[in-house]
Amino acid sequence: MKLVKKDESLTVKNAFDIYQRNNKIKKLSEMTLDFKERNFFDFSKFIDVNELKIKDVNLDLVEDYIEILLDKEQKATTINIKPRDLKTFLSYCFDNNYCNSFKITMLKEDEVIKETYSDEQLKILLKKPDLRKVTFNEYRNFVAECFLLANGIRCNSLLNIKINV
Length: 165
Fold this sequence. Notes:
There is one protein chain. This protein has helices spanning about 10-25, 30-45, 60-70, 75-80, 80-95, 120-125, 135-150, 155-160. By secondary structure, it is mostly helical. α1 (about 10-25) packs antiparallel against α2.
């Protein structure tokens, strides 16, 4: 990769290459780097990143990109993934004075209320099993459910508990 000085007119592609180099130096995982590369590739379908100067990127351009993503009729949660990643790239550009900063707002996501268990279902789930007849898996699940409810921790935290002997 050819290094480009800050005082030159950087293209969006040059700025992204510098950004990715910085991400590699920060030891981001390969999956993260690939994710950023794929999102940039999608953005490059929208504009010619090899011709457009990074200093010419503005809010109107980003909003036009988001509008095209909206036309694909996906949920706001899905659509926000690409602009959020673009926002991190542009924040890097803002911090390094490659372009003028502007505020990118994400789409408002509809809050989906999940269906909760009924009182009857909770009684069945939390019924203490008969210790003389219960299998190991049933007892383990019962203990895990009680632990989660009593402590309010996440499943991943429960899975990561280690016993030091």
